[in-house]
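Re: the pair you flagged

First of the two:
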Amino acid sequence: MIHAWGITDKGAVRAQNQDGFYLDVPSEQLAVGVVCDGMGGAKAGNVASLIAVETFVDALKQAAPQEEGRPAAVLAQAAETANAAVFRRAAADPDCRGMGTTMVAVLVVERMAYLLNIGDSRAYHINGGGITRLTRDHSVVEDMVARGDITPEEARNHPRKNLITRALGSEEHIRADLYEKELQPGDFLLLCSDGLSNIVTDQELLYEVLHGGEPADCCRRLLDITMARGAPDNVTAVLFQIV
């Protein structure tokens, strides 16, 4: 069985929430979640994330991934469909020129989690053994960490930390990364935008998910922590519990 919860907020500084998310658990053996963080100006970022989430979810539903036996391929194709929709709107609407969005998505089929990411929204695996980031940011600072130019700790406060190197909708065809993770009862999956991960540390995420209180209240607790620290960006969190 899978439980799921989600929350999004514009934060304490931004005038508009340009994040978007979707979650659904249509059966005991199937769950879907996606988080998008739009970019491209006051109007366009919101449009990009909205189009991406809606198009991605529609494509998944039409593909019926649990019946096809190829969930990773279905996930990738849904992201490509969403990318094309955002790209077309950006090309056709002058107000949306140059817009794009990050995307992190998960499709849970039985005990396997199939994940996809573009940009710097993240997926974490959490259980009694600790917390593991399942995705790799497509960002300038992540590349700097990979090269050994800076440490992960330095990356958290680096002045270029918000510069991403890939975004859904910014090019005609998208390069998404795909991952797989086998799940066990007691595991959690957390999807989030950088408005959360830039403010709350991995160890704090681990503590709140496992020890902070009821799982159903966890997303609200994480938002409250972020708000208490100034929440300079939009904040979105989606949490899955495997039971």
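Second of the two:
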Amino acid sequence: MDEAALNPRPQLPTASAPARDLLGMVRAHYRELVPYVPIVPPEVLGKAGGVAASQIIKLDGNENPYGPSPKALEALRHCATYHIYPDPAQRELRAALADYVGVGTEHIIAGNGSDEIIDLVLRLFLEPGDVVLDCPPSFGMYPFNTQVCAGTLVTAPRRTDFSLDVEEALRQAQDSRAKVVFLASPNNPTGNLLRREELEALLTTGLVVVVDEAYQEFAEAPSYAALVSSFDNLVVLRTFSKWAGLAGLRVGYGVLAPALVRLLDQIKPPYNVNVAALVAAEASLADREHLMGKVGLLIAERERLYGKLREVPYLEPLPSRANFVLCRVQGQDAGQLKAALAERGIYVKHVDGPWLRNALRISVGKPEHTDALLAALNKM
């Protein structure tokens, strides 16, 4: 079963009263919006594939297979304020994040996942028709949220090695009068890093430069968050979904100029980060040693996975600094390969679009997950 079937989209009802055209009242750009196709949880995959959810090897969402920290789980068990609205100013979490990131609390805002920060930033800057620059292949939420916010998307495709084509990005930004550019480091789905000179070349244009560091903890490279004190047009996104094992609780954050934080505070929903997410995120930051130990295991397993995938004759894996490995597929159809793995209860991400054809993105799991994946691949 394909991803669209697993993610049915509700249809707007047709107008029942002749005096009202309900669909005609919907904003025009929403009627033409191309939806983002999310991944689905193990219980849904299990029902679709006839495999028990407990037996599924889920390597399609870049989640942390080790789960949350014990301190986070303990804090969730003992929280006594689930019946009270959360702190709209996120004071304790912002203070803990300031210590973690190394910037003042005035530079930080938390969101319902970093996805919400992407949406808030675009709503802050875009008038209908304003231009957003994307550098594909990259994260699908950038073009999706641009559509939602009635923006216009222009692209500066990456080079064949998936490095950033800075000259093309600068040309496109100037020609289109773009307001915002999105860059991920490590990039999803290719796993490579953004170089500092590339970032600074774009920052000096005055564009709002959004650097998505969702996979930063796996990168073994410095974060760009410290640069927000020098560049007021820099926005850095981070999340607890990957390194901290909190994907299901949806908590991310932005690091940016205080003036922009104040404006985002004004337009965000007042209680956008729920009590459970706040409690778990704060406890995770207090248990960094444990969590970073798990990150170390995943980095080591990433390198083993990459090496083993290089031995599979029909795969061309790319070096990665995230918690996944992208593989070009040679001589086989990547979609069919994904389906064959799914029949064995192993789920990976099929990547196929204008800028990246016939590829699989494979999340790093535990060693036993790698072993099961390789055993299946070597039979195909």
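The longest strand covers residues 346-353.

-B.
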